[in-house]
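Case study 2.
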Amino acid sequence: MIVEKFMTKYLRYQNQRYLTFDDFKMQKLPRGNREREYLLYVHIPFCEELCPYCSFNRYKFQEKRARRYFAALRREIKLYSGRDFNCSGVYVGGGTPTVLPEELAETLHLIRENFPVREVSVETNPNHLTDEIVTILQQAGVNRLSVGVQSFDDSLLKAMERYHKYGSGAEIEANVRRFTGSFDTLNIDMIFNFPLQSMESLQRDLEIIKSIPADQVTFYPLMVSTATEKVIKKTLGKVDYGQEKLYYQEIFKQLEGDYRPGSAWCFSRQKAMIDEYIVDFDEYLGVGSGSFSYLNGKIMANTFSIEGYCEKLEHDQPAVAFCKDFSLFERMRYDFMIKLFGTSIDMAEIRRSYGNFFTDALWKELLLFKGLKALKEDGNRLYLTPKGYYYWVIMMREFFIGVNNFRDICRDQVKGNKGDKE
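Prediction:
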């Protein structure tokens, strides 16, 4: 565990510096490249109830405010149409995107009218697996539905404050079974390494997933931002990264026969879109309050204020509020991390993008992970080894914790503003 502990501490320190964004006022909308395919990320920041450990930009659902938001969201989508963004994939996250399914359907229809979309993925919660909502999503052309289950263990669901919202593990399982097959892919989102979780509990979750059988399952490690650390400790207990590796190894062992890793923590029965769209798309365009874009070496974030977002778009003004301009080295480091998170990296493609600068700049990282037997080389591709999969879980866990810390800071800045109370 020495290597894993060092990686966690080192990455946490580096990400504090690496994921620092400057305030930014966009004067002109960016333009895409017709030759490149983009992912359009759509953020819906409303939930019927707020999970205390979640760091995503989300607010308590109020219908009037949400309808105003959806109208502003559609205005932002129109702003980007005709600007050469060849968005072939759409990912709708939240929050709970299905809080107003008819508004979501109208938004998806608008997107299809303005972009050459081939695939649409939408997140939802177990209580929204109903005939009415599923039919609306199917008619709107949704290919993939990702259901936030987290665990089928009743004791964990109660500790997470999800039992009273979504029902027992048995009820959630029955609902997921009922709608499996309704979409090209139905993904089950799970979380592992809860302080109260036991190996037996995790193994029961895995047995249920395999018995359904789920089209796809994403097992996220518990990612605790600085702001949610106290809440997690109070409600669930202190996070132990020592047991995380044991749990991950069990997940990998149980799923590797019937499932193929699409990323270090997403497992599919057949090739399908995954939650980590950043793996399959080099660049992505984000719309909605608190959404992120990665374009031309810059990461940009929209304002986290619902009120501010709506006001901007009601005047047809860009909503981007923060920007991080990556240096060439930071771009290469980002590509190294993200592409290998997707299990392999095409070195011929990397050389077309960066020449020999990539291997010259990242020789230490390449040497280290090869020395740790985390990477293997086959022709022009570098692959993660079984050992390497867990190292990349650590890397991405710390990356997303860094992003969540940034989100927490932004959300704190807008608390108390008119229209922005949780």
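DSSP finds 17 helices and 18 strands in the chain.
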